[in-house]
Structures are given as structure tokens and as C-alpha cells.
User: Which sequence fits this backbone?
């Protein structure tokens, strides 16, 4: 039980496969929606308040002990794009491996047995945080931050964007991230009492359709 | 407890010699090296040489396309279900060294779907001279350079040249055309690698991939012993 475990879990170098995914940034760059630090910020803000909020709530609910299979089904229901569901499960499977190595726990073993092809990544993230002794808010912070840091680092590679500008975007979004995490944790607490129907169901249609478009390309840098 | 192989679910410790059901897993050999040095051609030649005697599969790590996997498919060196392409997010060295998740998933899936396998070849995307495979992913690694990339590469060293279990200097047939000094390359490689082996190879003549295949057979014999 160490708060510093949060730093391990949130580290961009945590070996759970995230480096190969752009969080929708590659499709948005190609579509001309991300062309600069300013448009990257718009993209990240949109993702934070939609996919980020949902991911944060799923992760926090897993820490609170909501049943993983119910959360996984809730994540499926909130992810219309098959390509995105597939990416979320692949990342979940990869995170399961890293989490089992870092914070061995019966719950993570059970998850690996129940979902050999991977549960949705935010659900696994929540269970990893739970195994590490972290709080619901910690898991929500990880999930919400990842949902903006992934596109930001991917855009540095895709557009050769100045890395200081890209990181500045993340710093400016920090206060909004706090608020999204508060909402996510509140929703997760309600879900713990009332069931997964209380989880937020925000989604970004362009993220969903962009993921389908991207999955059909034969030449791309990122897996999603 | 990490080495307990009777648990359920996928192996959490990547270098485990056993699969979750307790069976011995396939030997994994990585092939790395700069762009265009002949990694894919060497993989193709190894497949042709070894496929009759071994159960084989290949994982490719293309940088931004599926061309390496498609080359192997087109050449029909193995049935398509035995070839898997991993996407690397613009960082091929990350996928084979710093975060091996996707590659581990690929090798495990191949063992599940077409296994039991004797050998899995993991080919990296073309990268720089510092790109080496994690010991968590492969049991041995081959670094492939070529004479046309400059005959000073062995002298310059770097982790691939100095640490790989086998260094292959490829395209020796081109040496006279590009002004590369093979004897100097061999001597520099020997100086950098001391007792580690070096093979000079041309896939366009002579004994082809035979020496590398012999080295692979030796590793396999040691692995299954």
C-alpha cells in the first residue's frame, strides 16, 4: 500500500503496450483536425470529457469493487466502434500482464482467467490500482490522464510537433482533468450502489468513426 | 511464485520456459538490424530451410506497414496463420525491448493457435545500431548488418553488433561492388565480440543461409536438451 505506486502505474513508460496507440490522434491528424498545438488541445479536451470521463469512472468503479464482468459489459455498451472495443481489449490484455507482474493479486489472476483475450483497459487499470492499494480517484486520474497523454505524445511523432508545446497542452488541461476525475469518482460511487447503469455514457462520434476509418488503412504508424 | 507454471491464464513472467499448461514453449529467436540489411530475406530463407524439420512461426514488427509480413506471405515461406504482424507505433525498438507486451501476445497467440511450435522467429522493424531484443521476449538474438551499409559498422560497435548472440554480415556478394573490405569487417567484428560468433553470408550464392540455420539448430538442441 503505497501512494507512490500511482507514479509507477501512471508512468508513460509502464510496459503495457500504450506506446503503439495514438488514442485517435493518427486519424484526426490525417483528417486535418489536428494540425497544431491549439488543435491538439481541442482534440484532447474533447476526448477528456467523453472517453476520458467514461474510462475514469470505469477505473474508479473497479477500485470500489464493482464486479469486473459487469464493468466490462458496461464498457462494451459505451463503445460503439468495434475497432475501439478491439483496441481497448488488446490494451487491457497487455495491462493485465504487466499488472500481474507488478502487483500480484487473486483478483488480477481471476481477471486473466475470465478474460484471456483481455477486458476493457480502464477496467483492468482499476483492478491494477486496487491491487496496488490505490484509491478510486487515483485510478480515475490514471485513466483520464492517459486518454490525453497518449494523443499528445503520438502527435509529437505524427506532426513533428514541438514536444514542449505538446506537453504544455497537457499542463493546461490539468485543472479540467481534476474536474473530470471528480465527476468520474462520483459516478463510480453511484454505480457501486445502484449498478453500472449509473456510469457516464459520453462518447465522441468522431473518435468512434475515426477509429473505424483508421482500422481499414494499410499504412499507419499506430495500432489505433 | 512467479515461476510456478501451474497457474491458470496467460504466463505473467515473459521469459517463463513453460506455458500455462506446463508444456515447454517454443524457442524464440529475434532478428534485428538496420533497415535493408536483409532481415526479412534471412527469415524467409530460414523458413524454407527449416520448415520441413521444425514447426515454425514468424512475428514481424513493421514500422508503418505490413510489408514484411506480406513479403513472407507472398513468398509463401509459411502458411498465413503462422505469420503475425505486430504494430509498433513508430518505435520498433520500444516494441522489442522497452515494452514487449504486443510481441509477447503475438508469440503466445501463435503457440495457442498453430502450436505446438519448436521455433518462433521474431523479426524487428529496421532500426538503429542500438536496437536489441529484451531477454523477456527472446531467448537468443541475431543482428543482421550488410556490407553495403558501410564496412565501418562492425568497428563502430553498438549493442546490436557487440551483444547479439550471432552477428550476420549479409550480402557479401555485393562487397566488390560497394568497395567494402570483408576481411576488415570480419576482423573488426571479432575484436568487438571476442568469442561470440560472426557469420558472413550471401543469400544469392554459396551456401546461402546454411550457416545461420546450423546455428539455429544448435540453439534449438540446447533449448530442448
Assistant:
Amino acid at each position: 500500500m503505497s501512494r507512490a505506486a500511482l507514479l509507477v502505474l501512471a508512468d508513460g513508460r509502464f510496459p503495457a503496450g500504450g506506446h503503439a496507440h495514438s488514442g485517435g490522434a493518427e486519424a484526426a491528424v490525417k483528417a486535418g483536425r489536428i494540425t497544431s498545438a491549439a488543435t491538439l488541445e481541442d482534440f484532447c479536451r474533447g476526448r477528456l470529457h467523453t472517453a476520458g470521463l467514461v474510462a475514469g469512472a470505469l477505473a474508479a468503479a473497479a477500485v470500489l469493487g464493482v464486479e469486473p464482468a459487469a464493468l466490462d459489459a458496461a464498457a462494451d455498451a459505451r463503445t460503439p466502434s468495434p475497432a475501439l472495443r478491439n483496441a481497448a481489449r488488446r490494451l487491457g490484455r497487455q495491462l493485465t500482464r504487466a499488472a500481474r507482474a507488478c502487483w500480484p493479486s487473486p483478483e488480477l489472476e481471476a481477471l486473466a482467467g475470465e478474460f484471456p483475450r483481455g477486458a476493457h483497459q480502464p477496467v483492468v487499470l482499476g483492478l491494477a490500482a486496487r491491487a496496488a492499494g490505490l484509491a478510486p480517484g487515483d485510478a480515475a486520474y490514471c485513466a483520464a490522464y492517459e486518454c490525453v497523454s497518449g494523443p499528445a505524445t503520438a502527435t509529437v511523432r505524427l506532426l513533428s510537433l514541438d514536444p514542449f508545446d505538446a506537453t504544455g497542452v497537457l499542463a493546461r488541461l490539468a485543472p479540467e482533468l481534476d474536474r473530470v476525475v471528480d465527476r468520474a469518482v462520483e459516478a463510480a460511487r453511484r454505480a457501486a450502489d445502484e449498478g453500472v447503469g449509473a456510469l457516464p455514457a459520453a462518447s465522441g462520434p468522431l473518435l468512434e468513426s475515426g477509429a473505424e476509418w483508421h482500422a481499414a488503412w494499410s499504412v499507419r504508424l499506430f495500432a489505433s | 511464485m512467479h515461476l510456478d507454471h501451474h497457474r491458470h491464464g496467460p504466463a505473467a513472467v515473459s521469459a517463463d520456459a513453460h506455458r500455462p499448461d506446463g508444456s515447454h514453449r517454443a524457442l524464440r529467436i529475434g532478428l534485428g538490424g538496420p533497415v535493408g540489411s536483409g532481415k526479412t530475406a534471412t527469415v524467409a530463407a530460414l523458413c524454407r530451410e527449416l520448415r520441413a524439420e521444425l514447426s515454425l512461426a514468424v512475428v514481424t514488427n513493421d514500422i508503418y506497414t505490413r510489408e514484411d509480413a506480406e513479403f513472407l506471405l507472398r513468398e509463401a515461406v509459411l502458411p498465413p496463420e503462422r505469420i503475425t504482424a505486430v504494430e509498433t507505433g513508430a518505435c520498433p525498438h520500444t516494441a522489442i525491448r522497452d515494452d514487449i507486451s504486443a510481441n509477447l501476445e503475438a508469440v503466445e497467440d501463435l503457440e495457442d493457435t498453430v502450436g505446438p511450435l519448436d521455433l518462433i522467429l521474431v523479426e524487428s522493424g529496421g532500426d538503429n545500431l542500438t536496437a536489441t531484443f529484451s531477454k523477456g521476449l527472446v531467448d537468443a538474438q541475431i543482428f543482421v548488418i550488410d556490407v553495403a551499409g558501410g564496412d565501418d559498422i562492425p568497428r563502430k560497435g553498438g549493442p546490436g553488433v557487440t551483444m547479439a548472440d550471432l552477428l550476420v554480415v549479409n550480402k557479401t556478394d555485393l562487397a566488390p561492388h560497394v568497395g567494402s573490405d570483408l576481411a576488415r569487417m570480419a576482423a573488426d567484428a571479432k575484436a568487438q565480440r571476442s568469442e561470440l560468433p560472426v557469420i558472413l553470408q550471401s543469400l544469392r550464392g554459396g551456401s546461402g543461409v546454411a550457416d545461420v540455420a546450423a546455428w539455429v539448430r544448435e540453439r534449438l538442441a540446447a533449448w530442448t536438451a
